[in-house]
Amino acid sequence: MKTLIITALLAITLVSCNDKAKETEKQTTETPVNSSEKMYACPMHPEVTGKKGDKCSKCGMDLTEEVKK
Fold it and tell me: In Å, how far are 29, 40, 46 from 52, measured between CA atoms?
């Protein structure tokens, strides 16, 4: 009985962690892009882009590196 409960708790934990990772990934890839605005990237995570002054969703640093189109 204990094994069944532990297995169920482990499965719930793994599924909830996976959903959190997908949610974070959506935030980084669904950044709206206006052609008139310059885009900036995180110095540590260049795949994370956004407007100047935004924060990196992975490490919290300001987006400062200008993205060349």
Answer: 16, 6, 14
- Which residue has tokens 């795949």? 47
What would the DSSP string read from start to end of 21-56? HHHHHHHHH-----TTS--EE-SS-TT-EESTT-B-
Beta-carbon contacts of 28 under 8 Å, excluding residues fewer than 6 positions away, are 47, 48, 49, 57, 58
3-class DSSP assignment, residue 14: helix
Question: What is the reported pTM?
Answer: 0.44
Q: For residue 1, which amino acid is it? A: M
Q: What digits encode the pLDDT tens for the residues 23-64?
A: 555 555 545 555 457 889 988 888 888 888 889 888 988 888
